[in-house]
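FIELD: query
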Amino acid sequence: MLSFCVVAALLSTTVVAVKPIHSHNDYTRAVPLWDALNLSIMSVEADVWWVPGDGKLYVAHTSGEINKSITLQSLYLGPILGIINGTVASATPISVANPLQLLIDFKTDGPTTYQPVLDALQTLRAGGHLTTYANGVLTQGAVTVVGTGNTPLASVVAAEPRDLFFDANIIQLYSTKPGVGLEWGPEIAPLASVDYSSVSNTAQMQELVRNAHDFGIRSRFWDTASSVSTWDTFFSAGSDWVNADDLTGVSNAWAAFEAA
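FIELD: result
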């Protein structure tokens, strides 16, 4: 049976209320990462492009929008490490008690991009800050990194220890396996997502959330309408991460939902 443990000392005793909100395309915000953290939103997403000639992972929506001053390191990994270590001030701490989910959307070829992403995580890894699966134990870290987009599942499954995880297809959890003799679980895929247009109705969405929870996996649906009624539908279903572009609007909607 999969066991969970925490081996790192808490770097902050402050605990914030978890909001089921994911900052979709976070890097497009006025102040990436910080806009989310200022609202105590603890899940953000970066689209990553590996350019071998430069030896860098750039963050951009399309290859044509690459700005060579904006890298995964400069926009996310460096500031995150600073917040954890206490050298960078943040309205919301990042710690084992308040973990951040970082989705890395592989835009370039998955197998080619995989090792550079692993290498980029080394500073967080060296500090013991990454959620890690090793020797049958999943240990919660201050940061849980989940690969999506072109992330190669086979590479994730083969990794031992593992600190880069996979975003599974929530519709296929019962119909597919992550590998021979393996079952889905948070040690491979702590998150399962799908384009909401692939879901027939609210009842199916609710069923998919329950299915994910049966595997110990958190749920997310993307490309959803940006409205209070839509957000409330996901809140009511217990969806773990409500994909959102309007962070203030969805945060206010969550506060109203909680107060109702």
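FIELD: remark
Helices lie at 34-37, 72-85, 110-120, 122-126, 153-158, 202-214, 228-237, 247-259.
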